Amino acid sequence: MWNYTQKVKEYFLNPHNVGEVENPDAVGEIGNIACGDALYLTLKIDKKEDRIIEAKFKTFGCASAIASSSVLTDMVKGLTLDEALKISNKDIANVLGGLPEEKMHCSVMGQEALEKAIKGYRGIAPEKEEVLDGNIVCRCFSVTDKKIRRVVMENNLKTVDDVTHYCKAGGACGSCHEAIGKIIQEVYQVKDEKREEQKALKEKKKVLTNIEKMQLIQATIQKEIKPYLHHDGGDIDLIDIDGNKVYVTMKGACASCPASAGTLKHYVEKKLRERVSEEIEVIEKDT
């Protein structure tokens, strides 16, 4: 028998916000009834403030799945979308006073449903966000290599058993244990490489001259940002650079897209901050 906290029991026996938001602005659907757990999350959003004003859920699963989904709907109400996206599966488990290790996959399901709902609302295409598709590693529970990598990275998982607790992979026949072990090794190898790369990049940023900074901004827009936007018929032009302020104009499909403001901040600015300086601010300017 699982050792549930009092809060888990309360949210399971008396779940909050059960059902479906009428005419929802955002929907996140995760899981598969055939695999044992599924979550359908709906949100109502104040479009002026980009804030969640209502959240409801329907869940097929165990006590942990119901409690995790229910507490998530309480947690997100009143938050802006950016604030909601910062909620991790650990946050969900912590508000519940903890979950049994074997049930942590329920909190992961809540986090993924929330992310899917918000990204869908913002018009972010799944392929651009590297959704959890990829190659099936665990056929018993239809878990892909991408999902395994994600839970390992975000939760610092070290063993195959840890992975099973967080996404069920490897929890049945065991034939995928070797493949899961290799993925864990690959993740930590990549983490080490990225750590060194980020260290080098940080050092490089410190010594950039104004001319080097402008050249790097131009190169990043031309080689990385423009191809990304071209994929959906959009485009961007660099208008001016004033210190750390980068002025651009959105063109093509981006010019009329309601999600262009999100793309500007959550992709363009983020990419330039990664490649050039954390102080970069991207501002849209009419031509």
User: What does the average pLDDT come to?
Assistant: 87
Strand order of the largest sheet: 1-2-3
- Straight-line distance between termini: 65 Å
Number of helices in the DSSP assignment: 11
Oligomeric state as shown: single chain
Radius of gyration: 21 Å
Number of strands: 8
**What is the global morphology?**
globular
CATH architecture of the largest domain: Alpha-Beta Complex
Q: Can you characterise this structure?
A:
The structure is a single chain. The protein has 287 residues and is an alpha+beta fold. The chain has 3 domains: 6-122, Alpha-Beta Complex (Sufe protein. Chain: A), CATH 3.90.1010; 136-205, Arc Repressor Mutant, subunit A, CATH 1.10.10.1100; 208-284, Fe-S cluster assembly (FSCA) (GMP Synthetase, Chain A, domain 3). It has 11 helices and 8 strands. The strands form 3 sheets. A 3-stranded antiparallel beta sheet has the order 1-2-3. A hairpin with a 4-residue loop joins β4 and β5 (143-144). α2 (63-76) packs across α5 (104-121) and α9 packs across α11. It starts with 5 loop residues before the first helix and ends with a strand. Mean pLDDT is 87; it is low at 127-132.
Quickly describe the structure.
This protein has 287 residues and is an alpha+beta fold. It is 49% helix and 18% strand. Residues 127-132 have low confidence and may be disordered.
List the helices and strands and how they pair.
Blueprint: H1 6-13, E1 26-32, E2 37-46, E3 51-60, H2 63-76, H3 81-85, H4 89-95, H5 104-121, E4 136-138, E5 143-144, H6 145-155, H7 160-167, H8 177-206, H9 210-230, E6 234-242, E7 245-252, H10 253-256, H11 260-275, E8 281-284
Parallel strand pairs: 7-8
Antiparallel strand pairs: 1-2, 2-3, 4-5, 6-7
Helix pairs in contact: 1-2, 2-5, 4-5, 5-7, 6-7, 6-8, 9-11
